[in-house]
Amino acid sequence: MRVAITTHGCRLNQSEGDSMARSAREAGHEIVDLDDAPEVVVVNTCTITHSADADARQAIRRVAGRWPKARIVATGCYANGDPEALRSLPGVAVVVGNREKESWIEHLGRASDGEVDVVVGDLSRRVRLARLRPAIDPRRSRAFLKIQDGCNYRCAFCIVPKVRGRSTSVEASVLAEQLRQLVEAGAPEVVLTGVHLGTYGWDLRPRIELGALLGRLLASSPTARLRLGSVDPHELDDPLIELLAASPRICRHLHLPVQSGDDRVLRRMRRAHRVAHLERQVPRAAAAIPGVAIGTDIIVGFPGEDEAAFTNTYELLESLPIDYAHVFSYSARAGTEAASMPEQVPPEVMAERSRRLRQLSSDKWLSFTRRSIGAGASAVVYRRRDRRTGDLVALTDNYIKVHAVGADALLGRRVEVEIEDVSADGRARGRICDG
């Protein structure tokens, strides 16, 4: 079969999409682009917001309209959240849940013409983690390694625990072997992914912490370079900071989703951290790891966020060595506690607060990149050139995209770069020091 896979949403979903492509290849099928007359299309959905649901439905209808003979496999978080909504869409042959992705080909093979099968397990109890094997997407320079799935927390705004289940970890020995395979296949950098990395190993016996896993992975693959996904602020402990400071093969990049800089709002959100965690650990990390890029996520306009609470968030981001923020306006999600909370913030207020925070983030990132002028850094060159300029684009270990002149032979390689200039809009230019 000619199989196309299209993925929406987070890095974890991208990782699982890569793994589903690998299983199709190993079963003798051909992976093709969506434009290339596929016989089967896997739509790997997201459901983090109602807009994500709408995007998934639109994508499926678009596939069915363009390739009416193709059989569509609807999977991902929307499949767990509302399988009946996907079952009713044109072209869908089977709806497959997240924890059933490993056997999606078998489920498709058993699906009857004219009848849509729904294979979605009950995630209200702890269930086995899907044994998806990691793969390298030839279009990307970096590979993903899924170390964990699910979440035990119950943040008031988040639907993820309902569609991903409880936190479940992959054994360290399995991850060490998977990392070895990715490195041997040529991955210059491997990004550790999951729903909640900081809870890695809590379900394993004997229990193992995230820092201990990193140490084992580095020891098992002496040439691997690792990048952490998001870690909650209270999970950035001193041992983890010390490990990052001592290990040049772990990227100098931390993403700590604070969501709000006001403790009252954090309590309403049911977040496990408080502002004090950021105030204590972010300066420690910045001092211990020279050149580290520290980023965060912020939700603007959560119910009950008044002007004083927003000011606390703004001033926290302004005062700490946090270098960028992904800013999101709060969007009510059916099925979450926050959707029915009082004190909803007007959209125009959210828009203005978001604008102010994004401007602050832009200013701080420009300052960070300009401090890097003249410094060398390890980087990975993207596999595609910049469409507008034709430049190579290299991502440094501390998260700066550097445009440079270079030969095609450098595409997808790990290199050393030196940043020479940063424009007013934050675009960094530099030179590749090897190759």
Compact summary:
This protein has helices at residues 11-26, 50-66, 77-81, 83-87, 104-110, 160-164, 172-184, 210-220, 238-246, 263-269, 275-288, 307-319, 347-371, and strands at 2-7, 30-31, 40-45, 71-76, 92-96, 117-119, 143-146, 148-149, 168-169, 190-193, 226-228, 253-255, 293-300, 324-329, 376-381, 392-396, 401-404, 414-422, 428-432.
Distance between the termini: 40 Å
Estimate percent helicity. Answer: 25-40%
Please report which band the strand proportion falls in: under 5%, 5-15%, 15-25%, 25-35%, 35-45% or over 45%. 15-25%
Q: How are the strands of the largest sheet arranged?
A: 2-1-3-4-5-6
CATH superfamily of the domain at 2-119: Methylthiotransferase, N-terminal domain
Name the shape in a single word: globular
Architecture per CATH nomenclature, i.e. the level-2 architecture of the domain at 2-119? 3-Layer(aba) Sandwich
The parts where pLDDT drops under 50 for at least 5 residues are none
Number of helical elements: 13
Strand pairing plus helix content: what structural class?
alpha/beta
CATH topology heading of the domain at 2-119? Rossmann fold
Mean pLDDT: 94
- Tell me the total number of β-strands: 19
The major pleated sheet works out as: 6 strands, parallel
User: Radius of gyration, Cα only, in angstroms?
Assistant: 22 Å
CATH C-level label of the domain at 2-119: Alpha Beta
